[in-house]
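User: Hi! I'm working on a homework problem where we have to compare a predicted structure to a textbook description. Could you give me the structure for the chain below?
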Amino acid sequence: QALKVAVTAPPDKGKANAAVSAVVAKAFGVSKSAVTIVSGATDRRKLLHIAGDPATLSALAQKWIAS
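Assistant: Happy to help. Predicted structure tokens:
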């Protein structure tokens, strides 16, 4: 399953990646350091890892996917 995130930061020197991580961290209620880019750092499509309680994170993701 995937979530779509759009940011206005330019893809220059990691600014867009930092913006994506910040948006995801805020949405999931975790710190920015809890979000890491696993793959796709230089691609439009990214795979992120969010550290935290899997049940809580999964419930939040399912809620957004359903809406």
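For your comparison, note the following. Residues 7 and 20 are 7 Å apart (CA to CA). The helical segments are 15-28, 54-66. Good luck with the assignment!
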